[in-house]
């Protein structure tokens, strides 16, 4: 079967992997000049943290997200399985209890364990939650490595190609993975602005993703190697995709300093802004729009849920399977 996927973000690449694994002949049209150049996926933190996400997301996200860890381990070399550490400063300790009540699959940790896991944070934090089965990846390396693997498997990438959805209909099956740009045919999609920083510090070493709980400005920090850290991410009901607000910059840095004062001397090496594609219920969907198969609405769970969404799409295409009404049905 010949399949044209529009969009080489994480959704399009995951679909290409699942279609190719079932013998599909896949071509990807991408408006950007390379993988990630124009994709929201470029700005992701890369946390594969399904149990932590249970704090605010549906059970289906927690269940399907667990499958993503093995999937990415099979498709990239950037996955690190070192767990997630959730911390709160003494004055915010009630936030830790609330987080614990809403999540599962963690152990409570105290000064000694925190000192073993993250020696540089041991002086400041005395209680936390450790989600040992969670993982993280470098999303940029992950999508590049996945695209290289797909190329070796025969997937054709056509870059600098801004496809018009009505022009690409032909004999191929068309799969729309354009993210937020698909609002022309998926009218209920909206953008949820996310802002992030890449910082560099040689003064402190953090080994795994840290979530710092705070009543107003929760923060996560993800190591990127060689002293680089991704700090994120805001969640704002706004589709502006270019500029960070002064308030967001102030809050992200303030929380980073609260995690450790050494970050005062860190260098800001990159500022990233994009809008996550989301449906009103913030859950992703696979759905037909006429003859076009659409995979979209990955919201803040692009890396966590694209493997399951791609498998759902592949079952619809190759096995003629009915697409479940909701991911709740698919995850049970
Ligand atoms: C700051 C931030 C932090 C985040 N952190 C995480 C995280 O830690 N974990 C996680 O799982 N998710 C995270 N996300 C969410 C994640 O990035 C998104 O869910 C994901 O990128 C959506 O993927 P997508 O493939 O649907 O869209 P995109 O990545 O935007 O891909 C769509 C692609 O389609 C292309 N395209 C659009 N129109 C056309 C056209 N007409 N012709 C050809 N190509 C076209 C675009 O150029 C783009 O490459 C974060 C997002 C942000 C902004």
TrEMBL record:
<keyword id="KW-0560">Oxidoreductase</keyword>
<dbReference type="GO" id="GO:0003884">
    <property type="term" value="F:D-amino-acid oxidase activity"/>
</dbReference>
<keyword id="KW-0274">FAD</keyword>
<protein>
    <recommendedName>
        <fullName>D-amino-acid oxidase</fullName>
        <ecNumber>1.4.3.3</ecNumber>
    </recommendedName>
</protein>
<keyword id="KW-0285">Flavoprotein</keyword>
<dbReference type="GO" id="GO:0046416">
    <property type="term" value="P:D-amino acid metabolic process"/>
</dbReference>
<comment type="similarity">
    <text>Belongs to the DAMOX/DASOX family.</text>
</comment>
<dbReference type="GO" id="GO:0071949">
    <property type="term" value="F:FAD binding"/>
</dbReference>
<dbReference type="InterPro" id="IPR006076">
    <property type="entry name" value="FAD-dep_OxRdtase"/>
</dbReference>
<dbReference type="Pfam" id="PF01266">
    <property type="entry name" value="DAO"/>
</dbReference>
<feature type="domain" description="FAD dependent oxidoreductase">
    <location>
        <begin position="3"/>
        <end position="315"/>
    </location>
</feature>
<dbReference type="InterPro" id="IPR023209">
    <property type="entry name" value="DAO"/>
</dbReference>
<dbReference type="InterPro" id="IPR036188">
    <property type="entry name" value="FAD/NAD-bd_sf"/>
</dbReference>
């Amino acid at each position: 079967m010949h399949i044209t996927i529009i969009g080489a973000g994480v959704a399009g690449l995951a679909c290409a992997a699942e279609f190719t694994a079932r013998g599909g002949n896949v071509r990807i049209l991408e408006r950007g000049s390379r993988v990630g150049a124009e994709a929201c996926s470029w700005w992701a933190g890369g946390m594969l943290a399904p149990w932590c996400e249970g704090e605010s997301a549906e059970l289906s996200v927690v269940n399907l997200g667990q499958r993503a860890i093995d999937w990415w381990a099979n498709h990239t070399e950037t996955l690190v399985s070192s767990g997630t550490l959730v911390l709160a400063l003494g004055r915010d300790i009630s936030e830790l209890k609330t987080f614990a009540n809403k999540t599962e699959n963690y152990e409570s940790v105290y000064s000694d364990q925190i000192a073993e896991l993250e020696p540089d944070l041991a002086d400041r934090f005395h209680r936390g939650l450790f989600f040992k089965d969670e993982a993280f990846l470098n999303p940029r390396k992950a999508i590049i490595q996945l695209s290289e693997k797909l190329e070796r498997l025969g997937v054709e990438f056509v870059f600098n190609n801004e496809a018009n959805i009505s022009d690409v209909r032909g004999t191929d099956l068309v799969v729309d993975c354009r993210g937020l740009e698909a609002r022309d045919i998926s009218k209920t999609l909206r953008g949820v602005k996310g802002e992030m920083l890449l910082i560099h510090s040689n003064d402190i070493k953090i080994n795994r993703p840290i979530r710092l709980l705070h009543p107003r400005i929760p923060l996560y920090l993800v190591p990127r190697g060689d002293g680089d850290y991704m700090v994120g991410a805001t969640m704002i009901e706004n589709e502006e995709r270019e500029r960070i607000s002064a308030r967001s910059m102030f809050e992200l840095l303030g929380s980073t300093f609260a995690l450790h004062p050494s970050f005062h001397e860190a260098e800001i090496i990159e500022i990233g802004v994009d809008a996550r594609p989301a449906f009103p219920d913030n859950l992703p969907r696979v759905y037909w729009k006429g003859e076009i198969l659409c995979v979209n609405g990955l919201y803040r769970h692009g890396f966590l849920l694209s493997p399951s969404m791609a498998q759902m799409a592949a079952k619809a295409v190759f096995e003629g399977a009915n697409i479940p009404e909701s991911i709740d049905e698919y995850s049970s």
